[in-house]
Amino acid sequence: MMKFALKSILFVSLLSTSLLVRSQSIQIQLGPDEIGENQAWSMSISVINGQLKSYDNFPEIDGLRKRGTSTQSQTSIVNGQVSSSQSVIMTYIPTKQGTFTVPPFSMRINEQVTHSPGKKIKVGPPLQAQARDPFQMGRDPFNDFFGKDETEFVDVKEDALLALTTSKDEVYVGEGLTATLSFLVADNNRAPMQFYELGRQLSEILKKLKPSNCWEENFNIENIEGVPININDKGYTQYKIYQATFYPLNAEPVKFPSVGLEMIKFKVAKNPSFFGQNRQEDFKTFDSKAKIVSVKELPPHPLQGSVAVGNYQLDERISTNNLKTGQSVGYEFNVHGEGNISSIERPIISKDNNFDFYEPNVQQNIARESGRVSGTKSFRYFLVPKEPGDFNMGNYFQWIFFNPAKKKYDTLRSQITLSVEGESQRNQAIQSTDFGSFYDRIDTTDNGLRSALQTGWIKMGMNVLILLLLGASVYLVFSSRSRA
Predict the structure, then answer these.
(1) Is 69 in a helix, a strand, or coil?
(2) Mean pLDDT across the chain, nearest whole number?
(3) Distance between CA atoms of 368 and 204, rounded to whole angstroms?
(4) What confidence tens digit (pLDDT) does each residue in 44-55 have?
């Protein structure tokens, strides 16, 4: 008892003295070179004289499997100087015997890159447990105060779950439904947990979760933040991991299978100490429940398989309502609302000889927020009137869609009326493509061609005749010389 009192007085007096504090440093420490197959090997990162705020994932090691991490804090006084450290220790378990290599690696610790040269680890046969020292009858209470004796950890039952929820249980083909994968932690939860390699896990989860018969609009959650919610009069903190709106492409049910999320769950020390290790890292997998959303066919309609589905309105714009024939004007047909904006096709245009319509420029803007997908798809036309008069543009521009809220088809029509003045330009367009004068010249052209061909044959015959006469003359000359 006297020994404990003296140590306590010495410790308190040293802490109350003004002392020099050493500068902060970061270390990576590797375990022993050789262990038995039944032994654990560890790697630790430590921040000396500072707080351990952030660190990268510990490296994977061939032949060893990660078992979990634990934390440790220490304070020491040497030659009147106070030194403190905070550490995270990753425990590895051998998977087989042999010699394994920890290659050189780097870790970002407290936003500072720290390098390790690596090493080789020899895993030998299992070692026998050493017998307990029979002469160690008691424990030093001073060691208990600093947490140096073996710490017993207990598993605290968690009140949390992984949940996949959908905004609707039944939809039409093409109608949007929003699916949300969340980790929910009850307000009365006492088990400490944290996410583990979420990016890697989410990549594998989405391969299983995304239905193949749907168009996806991903909300691209970048920062996972807790939001308080209430479910059946019970408070939770919701951490949204993934959220997207899906639009069924056919009448097959939309199926979301059960997926699992591995979390770090800490065991807590049964007898926590001020300076010792008070929690131990472990893992637990949380599984979501499978979910099926039924899909209905759209009601019969000539455009049943091609119309957009959603709640839409029309916003149209034109630079002027008063035109002259031959004068071009810009016209915008903007469809906006909630639904699959990407699937919106251009409006149906009824064409006649009163206007020339040019292919539109298309632009779309999509907003994904608050569990909804909305936006605008704009069709920008140029049109040229060819006839004077008053024209209702609703007779030319219309767009048909299915409204699932009203459970019926609807049509967006232009409400603009154009007043056109000037002379008719319909005949000018015909004259610009009038080939009558050409056809009128067919006979003369044909006769001229025939005449040219005939002239060509005559010239060719004359040339052949001249060559024959020239050849005959040469022959006669050589024949007369040979006789002489």
Answers:
(1) strand
(2) 80
(3) 23
(4) 998 888 878 788
CB 393 within 8 A of CB 349: no
Contact present, 69 and 89 (Cβ < 8 Å): yes
| Cα–Cα separations (whole angstroms), residue 83 to 272, 371, 428, 456 | 22, 51, 96, 113
Buried b (16+ CB within 10 A) or exposed e, 219-257: bebeeeeeeeeeeeeeebbbbbbbbbbbbbeeeeebebe
pLDDT in tens, 151-177: 677 888 899 999 999 999 999 999 999
SS3 call for 43: strand
Please provide the CATH number assigned to the domain covering 308-432.
2.60.40
**pLDDT tens, 347-357?**
988 888 899 99
Candidates 212, 213, 285; CA nearest to 250 is 213
Report pLDDT for 441: 44
**Domain 20-125, CATH number (from 2.60.40, 3.40.462, 1.25.40, 3.30.1180):** 2.60.40
Distance CA(446)–CA(440), nearest Å, equals: 11
CB 65 within 8 A of CB 93: yes
Please give the model's pTM, rounded to 2 decimal places.
0.59
Greatest mean pLDDT range, 17-31, 84-98, 306-320: 306-320
Position 383 pLDDT exceeds 70: yes
CB-CB contact of 163 with 243 (8 Å): no
Rounded to a whole number of angstroms, the CA Rg of the chain reads 43
Bridge partners (DSSP) of residue 367 are 374
Residue 126 DSSP code:
P
Residue 39's Cβ-count burial label (10 Å; 0-12, 13-18, 19+) is middle
| Averaged pLDDT, 7-11 | 40
Q: pLDDT digits over 288-319, tens only?
A: 999 999 999 999 999 888 899 999 999 999 99
Give CA–CA dist 18/364, Å, rounded.
Answer: 67
So where are the chain's domains? 20-125, 160-271+280-296, 308-432
Instruction: Note whether 199 and 223 are within 8 A (CB).
Output: no
Residue 414: which of 329, 484, 348, 465 has the closest Cα? 348
DSSP 459: H
DSSP 299-317: PP-TTTTT-EEEEEEEEEE
Strands (DSSP E) along 249-347, which ranges?
Answer: 254-256, 260-269, 279-287, 291-296, 308-318, 322-324, 329-339
Check the CA dihedral 362-368-373-374 and report its sign.
negative
Higher pLDDT: 92 or 127? It is: 92
Q: How many residues would you count in the chain?
A: 484
